[in-house]
Each structure stands twice: as structure tokens, then as C-alpha cells.
Amino acid sequence: MTRPRLEVAEVIRNCRDTFLQRYGAGLTSEQRRALDDLTACRTAALGGHVLGCLECGHQEVSYNSCGNRHCPKCQATAAARWLETQSADLLDTPYFHVVFTLPSALGPVAQHNPRIMYGLLMRAAAKTLLEVAANPEHLGAEVGVLAVLHTWGQNLTLHPHVHCVVTGGGLAPDASRWVAGRNDFFLPVRVLSRVFRGKFLSGLRAAFQRERLRFHGRLKALARPERFHHLLNTTPLTSV
User: Fold this and answer.
1) 231 lies in the same domain as 148
2) In a 10 Å sphere around its CB, with 0-12 CB exposed, 13-18 middle and 19+ buried, how is residue 207 labelled?
3) Which of 21, 35, 48, 167 could make a disulfide contact with 63, Cβ separation 3.0–4.6 Å?
4) 239/96 Cα distance (integer angstroms)
5) Residue range 69-99, pLDDT digits in tens
6) Does the structure show a pLDDT above 60 at 100?
7) Can you name the residues that pair with 63 across neighbouring β-strands?
């Protein structure tokens, strides 16, 4: 594999101090650790190991990798293997790509409560697809879904969303046959949006009622029920 002319680690090392002066106070511990790991990856800071040939005695010294899941060097091979594994499980049927997005207004809430918010997002997306597809008015079958959570957009700003790869057909309710869908149409977007909104907001309100959500700093006002429910009632939730 040809080495790129510029690597992410080089950019971080060159701009690290300036970046931390401007944004360091707002970084989470996980973000700070990722920055530190990517800076040190495959450098003397992490030590190294020696590969040697028993025949000729030739040796090569390699620096150790950081192993951080955000590191493009460390995760490139793992990502390729994961993609190969998923591809092997694909069925001989058309697939559709559906994206469920958390609106920007709820982004800060997700940052303060990532496990709860992202879990709700994933479950609401999957349940929505299964429920709408199972409805006889639409497909009337149990579809297959592969869902992947992304928490950032292409411009590296907070943008939680779930990419779903969904079979364009599914098993009949009695599992006796395959119900094929149309190649040019999957499920009505408006119906998906309505069901998704209901499921996600129901789960979010339940989490709030059980006092599972935490609000700090500028979000403290959301701890008041009237402010929290006003936010939910005025926030759109969409699927594409």
C-alpha cells in the first residue's frame, strides 16, 4: 500500500499546541486521549519491537501502534476485515440505504448522555424499520437490517446519525417464503419519520422521567421538566 503524502498524525503533531490552546478546555477525556494516542502512534514514544531473520541476521525496528479505535492507521486493517465479513453475509437481493438523524438541537444532550442517547437512536431506528416493513400496507415482511452509528459529520462537527442498510424484501410472517419489494421504492419516508419520532421521543421521555439523563453547564435548565419537554416538542426528527 502506498503511503499517503500527508497523514492525520502529521497534521496533529504540527497543529497540536495551537489546537489545544483554542479548544483544549472543551475536550472530553476520550477526545484528549485520542489526540494523545494519534500523536504518539508508531513513534518512539510508544516503544518498538524488532523483527529479525534467523538465517541472515537482518533486523528491522518497528514502532508500536497506539491501538486507539479512532486511529486511521490502526483501524484500517480492522475496518477492511469487518467490511469483508459483512459483505459475505449479504443476500442476493436489492438493498436500500436509510439514514436516521438526530437533530442538532439534541446534539449537546447526546454529548452529555452518549450511552443513553446513542442507544435510543440505534434501537428506535431498527424498530422503526422492522415495524413499518412488517405492516401489510407496506411490505408485510421481516427485513434484514445492518446499522452503523456515526457521531460526526464529514466536516468533523457533531452530527449523530445511523446508517442502515436494509434488504429490499423479507421473510413472510410465517417464514415460508421471501416477499420481494420494488427495486425503485422501499418504504414511505413520511411514515418512517413519524414512527421513528414517536419511538425515539417515547424512550427519551422515559429516560428523563427515570432521572437517567444528566445536564451540566449551559444545559442545566433542561433539568426542569417544562424546558425539557418544550425542547422535545419543538425538535424535528427525520429519516432519509
Assistant:
1) yes
2) middle
3) 48
4) 13
5) 888 888 888 888 888 988 888 889 999 999 9
6) yes
7) 48
